[in-house]
Amino acid sequence: MNSFKSLMKDQQLLPIIQANSAEEGVQIAGAMRAGGIHLVEVVLRTEASIEALEAIKAAYPDMCVGAGTVISVDTLDKALAAGADFIVTPAISNSLLQALKACPVPVLPGVSNTGDILLASEYGFTELKLFPASLAGGAAFIKAMSSVFQQISFCPTGGVSADNRNDFLSLPNCFAVGGTWVAAKAWVEAGDWQAITDACAQANA
To answer: Self-association or partners: how does it assemble (predicted)?
Structure first.
């Protein structure tokens, strides 16, 4: 099975889509695509999330569309049934990791401390999401982990912005950063899709 990192290819930004409708999700994804993005994460935080994921995949078959905020086996099953190309979780548990281990698509489990990292690595995961990155030690924490967990690489999300993304990306054990800043709520509400396109192009440059 492909690793999550291999799905990213040269993309160093994991852009997060939180959509209140399928139509809104397609608009956001289209704006991101115009900014050079080929992979997006749809967070399952609204009632329309699954429908949005399916709509984006239908509208843009060339895009890699995954599901985020997967916190239970039930949510995982729904995401996979909707055709998610990858799975991202904000946290882990033994039961969730057991299900993720059998997942047919790449997975990026969420961790926030050394115990989480050790647990995830025991299940065979070496690519992890640090969340919430700004509260879990940020770039300094990821840097410190390089000597202890030498096989682990990170994609931090939560508190990552245009101002600090390079603090993370300069680290050899950080392969990407995730964030919502490239699709600010105000832009989405105003239908300012060009602002999203510009932010994605700049963030992924």
So the answer is: Homotrimer.
